[in-house]
Amino acid sequence: MSNINRRRFERVEVNKTVVLKNGTKGRVRDLSAGGVSIVLDGPPKGRPGDEIEVDIEHFGRFSGDVIRIMDEGLAMDFDLDEEGESRMIAELSGYRSGSDHD
């Protein structure tokens, strides 16, 4: 089996706080224009396919679907239109180039 990267967007490591709509807090593991991987302060709730809303420090509020539950957190896909994806790509470009946003 080949090791082809099937992701549409590059993932970027950012150190930002996340708050889920249900009040659960955590930290971003990595972020892209397509979604986010989150390490939660408590056990993850829900299952793949569940709708979710998160507020990511500096980036804002996003809704989407849980795609994976992990021992320490979850991953979600964002529901962004093309314009939203373009804005996220532009925002993340500063993190890739080494700019300090903290």
What does this entry look like structurally?
This protein is mostly beta strands and 102 residues long. The chain has a single domain, classed as Thrombin, subunit H. 15% of the residues lie in helices and 39% in strands. It has a six-stranded antiparallel barrel with strand order 1-2-3-6-5-4. The radius of gyration is 13 Å and the shape is globular. It starts with 16 loop residues before the first strand and ends in a 6-residue tail after the last helix. The N terminus is likely disordered.
Question: Main attributes?
Answer:
Thrombin, subunit H; six-stranded antiparallel barrel; disordered N terminus; 102 residues
Topology diagram in text:
Elements: E1 17-20, E2 25-31, E3 35-40, E4 51-56, E5 60-70, E6 73-78, H1 82-96
Antiparallel strand pairs: 1-2, 1-4, 2-3, 3-6, 4-5, 5-6
Name the structural class: mainly beta
**β-sheet strand percentage:** 35-45%
* Biggest pleated-sheet summary: 6 strands, antiparallel, barrel
Strand order of the largest sheet: 1-2-3-6-5-4
Q: What's the number of extended β-strand segments?
A: 6
Order of helices and strands: EEEEEEH
Question: How much is the radius of gyration in Å?
Answer: 13 Å
CATH topology: Thrombin, subunit H
* Overall 3D form: globular
The number of distinct helices, counting runs of at least 4 residues, comes to 1
Number of spatially distinct domains: 1
Average pLDDT, all residues: 88
> Could you name the CATH class?
Mainly Beta
Parts with pLDDT < 50 across at least 5 consecutive residues:
1-5
